[in-house]
Amino acid sequence: MSPTHASPPATRIISCKTSADLLAALPQLTGFTADDSIFVLLFDGKRTSGCFRLDLPVSEDDEDTEGLPDAICDVLEDLGDLHGTTSAPAVVITCSQTFERAGGAPWSRLAERIERRLRERGPGVRDLCCLAADGWVSYLDPSAPSRGRPLGEISENPISLDAGVNGRLVPDLASLGRIPRPDPARLAAVAAALEALPAFPLPGPEPVPPPRSGSAKPAIDTGATFTQTAAVARSLMRVDGALSPRMTARLIRSAASPDRWLQMALAVLTRPDFPGELARDLGPERFIGVPVDIDGPSTAAGATGPRRTGWSIRRILFLLCPDFTDRERLPDIRDRLLTAISETPTELRPPLLAFSAWVWWLAGSQTVAGRQVREARDIDPEDALTAMVARLIRTPCFYRPSGELSVGALAGPDRAEARNAPFTRPNAEAA
Fold first, then answer.
1. How many CA atoms lie within 13 A of 309 on its CB side?
2. CATH architecture of 19-175
3. Rounded to 5 degrees, what angle do the CA atoms 235, 388, 346 make?
């Protein structure tokens, strides 16, 4: 059974012939701007194939930058293996520091270390630029002026001017994922819809999956659960149109139920009806009462004792999300979720914030995901779904460290066991 997806929109080609062109195109390539960052642009031949961003360290001292060049190379190697590309990347350091204060190009020592490590480990570097508060240079340009080139060469570049004329202005990273101010009429309508829609019943504490029996019947109407959640997912994922107040209320109630939360996540990863079809194939009882997370402190890396086996929401997402590629569908989903969160009573927000954080992480932004997790924890520090998502987003979505969890861990003790091993990855953000 293969999920089907809509075709992505046609790719717009931006021709970059100089370092100034590259810096002018950077916001269009990443979808946002950010100071004090390291952007690494990936290439497949002559065309960009992706980008990831890391925070600049607090200083260029050895203790602050040790391991960073190797971390960049590690991410590049992993992404190269994933996508089958080995082309040299372009690296851009954006910073609030100035050429005047640095007495030359800011962060030049770090840039030199990154360049050296990229060349030593194979891919090399296509370009390596600095975009500071008062100028820019390519670190690879031997004739670059010590006080930097004027920023007007970027802002007045034809690529920048074309983006402005055609309304292709991009937000700053700090504004991404910001919850909008709700419309008062919508707020009242959603509140009324919530009042008319009681919270969905939660499953009991029986093991998952429960023993099959001819007489045993789930306490929850599983058919209605999958049908209703598919309708919510379908509204959340459609190409245009806002959610109705009634559907927003159903989304809020669904997010508060871990089973429905998981079904919505599986729908985003595939298509709205796919979870129900899977339940018909495997048995709906396997999707009722799935634990949120069974890999707590007692099963963390370095812990002793037996590992728990079986399904959990985190394990399912941990294994499935790295294979997700249809990111073109996510912006509309993110926008609808932000609007829905703004219309949700504060005390009911944490599970929906956790779902939104997961979608942002799936899209490649650990920064926004982490911010929304913190907002959820400020409201309810004990929310289980928020805690699960917080663990999930510690590493970039495109990683599936082979030492931490095996597919067989979902099968039970007769087939395999969950394995946790220490691993460290940079807080790399796909752009």
1. 13
2. 3-Layer(aba) Sandwich (3.40)
3. 60
Residue identified by tokens 């002793």 is 304
Q: What is the pTM of this model?
A: 0.79
| Helix, strand, coil content of the chain in percent (nearest 5) | 50, 10, 45
Please state, in angstroms and rounded to a whole number, the distance separating the CA atoms of residues 429 and 431: 6
All CATH 3.40.140 domain ranges of the chain, comma separated, are 19-175
d(CA 223, CA 279): 9
Distance (Å, whole) CA 93 – CA 39: 6
Is the CB of residue 355 less than 8 Å from the CB of residue 260? Answer: no
The residue behind tokens 């996510």 is: 330
Q: Which of 149, 151, 133, 150 is CA-nearest to residue 141? A: 149
DSSP annotation of 104 reads S
For tokens 């819809």, name the residue.
Answer: 193
pLDDT in tens, 218-267: 445 667 889 999 999 999 998 888 999 999 999 999 999 999 999 999 99
In angstroms, rounded to a whole number, what is the distance separating the alpha carbons of residues 192 and 200?
Answer: 17
Bridge partners for 91 per DSSP? 40, 128
Tokens of 155: 């802002």
Provide the total of helices (H) and of strands (E) in the chain, helices listed first: 17, 6
DSSP codes, 241-309: -PPPHHHHHHHHHHHHSHHHHHHHHHHHHS-TTHHHHHHHHH-GGGGSS--S----GGGSTT--SPPP-
216 token code pair: 């045993």
pLDDT tens sequence across 11-60? 578 888 999 999 999 999 888 999 999 999 988 888 888 888 999 999 99
Q: Two tokens at 103?
A: 């007495």
In order of 85, 89, 131, 134, 154, the CA distances from 24 in angstroms are: 25, 17, 10, 15, 5
CB 372 within 8 A of CB 221: no
User: CB-based contacts of 403: which residues, under 8 Å, 6+ apart?
Assistant: 419, 420, 421, 423
Using the Cα atoms of residue 271, residue 277, residue 281 and residue 283 in order, give the sign of their dihedral. positive
Let me know: does 275 contact 287? Beta carbons within 8 Å. Answer: yes
